[in-house]
UniProtKB/TrEMBL annotation:
Annotated site residues (Important for catalytic activity) in this chain: 225
Protein name, per record: Adenine deaminase
Record: active site: 204 (proton donor)
Record key words, sorted: Hydrolase, Metal-binding, Nucleotide metabolism, Zinc
Reaction(s) catalysed (UniProt annotation): adenine + H2O + H(+) = hypoxanthine + NH4(+)
Annotated GO biological process: adenine catabolic process; hypoxanthine salvage; nucleotide metabolic process
Keyword Nucleotide-binding assigned: no
Entry EC no(s): 3.5.4.2
InterPro entries in alphabetical order: A_deaminase_dom, ADE, Ado/ade_deaminase, Metal_Hydrolase
Family, per entry: Belongs to the metallo-dependent hydrolases superfamily. Adenosine and AMP deaminases family. Adenine deaminase type 2 subfamily.
Positions contributing to substrate binding: 283
Domain Adenosine deaminase: 13-336
Length: 340
């Protein structure tokens, strides 16, 4: 792609709204933590682990992703993982990040949810000192029963009280097919009553009906991925009218075979029809790049213009869960930068 545009995007202030902190765990850190915590891995070396990152669909990725997370045991482990992401994000000029974590992946191994959040929070507080503002979103694993999500939600209530500035929402992730949003209506209703922000992965591998369910039954504020919405014209019009954003993750979609080639990605069609899409990295340690690499890949493949790149960046700020005042300041900063 045009190197001037790449440079302009790279240095632009931006928000990242779809990043699973466990998906930022690089193979080097997985091995270091395995050694530190005496956890046995199924791979002999960093190279052997990386070689296993040849995914055919979402589930083939999730199996390896959950195995990678098994090295996280202590507060310091969650701190180290999160601080590594903070540094990568700052290097990509991310000024605001909204970060997912999967407590059930850890509590089922006996790691208390308080340990998980304390480690992540300590690194995010350090991130704030270095120039990255952030929010944290607790995700429920949809392959597990709703009763487990409800128990996780109840166990997290003291943490929502303790970290109100940080822990501001709930989300839904893991294996999409066969686990529609409707399965989690009750737990999302509770979170909504409490005034939390709501997001859900939908329309990544699953059909447009899952996006409708996320909107109508869970009443989400944003949809994660949502790229299959393009198959339903009425849904696209509704997303455009409501300005409910889709947090799109191009390299993830490519690696998980949602599209067999980046030139087939539907982001430009969504953008052309007025849907608030923006660019994110999802699980950057597994999919070959952090947020800037995702921008480069999609702008290059779809031959997006400078104006379209600006719209994506601006949408990331518009869709952030920040106050109107903070949003206005972030947009002003982008505008000043973009005009120079
Ligand atoms: N957990 C981590 N990454 C995910 C993705 N892309 N889809 C669903 N669940 C996930
Ligand atoms: Zn995701």
């Amino acid at each position: 792609m045009n190197p001037t545009l790449a440079d302009k995007i790279a240095h632009a202030p931006k928000a990242e709204l779809h990043i699973h902190i466990e998906g930022s765990l690089e193979p080097e850190l997985i091995f270091e933590l395995a050694r530190r915590n005496d956890v046995k891995l199924a791979y002999d070396s960093i190279d052997a682990l990386r070689a296993a990152y040849a995914f055919t669909d979402l589930q083939s990725f999730l199996d390896i992703y959950y195995a990678g997370a098994s090295v996280l045991l202590h507060e310091q482990d969650f701190y180290d993982m999160t601080l590594a992401y903070v540094e990568r994000a700052l290097a990509d000029h991310v000024t605001h990040a909204e970060i997912f974590f999967d407590p059930q992946t850890h509590t089922e191994r006996g790691v208390p949810i308080e340990t998980v959040v304390a480690g992540i929070e300590r690194a995010l507080a350090e991130g704030e000192r270095r120039g990255l503002t952030s929010k944290l979103i607790l995700c429920f694993l949809r392959h597990l029963p709703e009763e487990d999500a409800l128990a996780t939600y109840e166990s997290a209530l003291p943490l929502f009280d303790k970290y109100p500035h940080r822990l501001i929402g709930v989300g839904l992730d893991s294996s999409e097919r066969g686990h529609p949003p409707s399965k989690f209506e009750r737990v999302f209703a509770k979170a909504r009553e409490r005034g939390l922000k709501l997001v859900a992965h939908a329309g990544e591998e699953g059909p447009p009906s899952y996006v409708y369910e996320a909107l109508d039954l869970l009443k989400v504020d944003r949809v994660d991925h949502g790229v299959r919405s393009i198959e339903d014209a009425a849904l696209v019009a509704r997303l455009a009218d409501s300005r409910i954003a889709l947090t799109v993750c191009p390299l993830s979609n490519l690696k998980l075979c949602v599209f067999d080639d980046m030139t087939k990605h539907t982001l430009k069609d969504l953008l052309d029809q007025g849907v608030a899409v923006m660019i994110n990295s999802d699980d950057p340690a597994y999919f070959g790049g952090y947020v800037n690499a995702n921008y480069f890949a999609i702008v290059d493949a779809l031959k997006l213009s400078e104006d379209e790149a600006y719209t994506l960046l601006r949408n990331s700020l518009e869709a952030s869960f920040v106050t109107d005042e903070e949003r206005a300041a972030m947009i002003a900063r982008l505008n000043t930068y973009w005009k120079q």
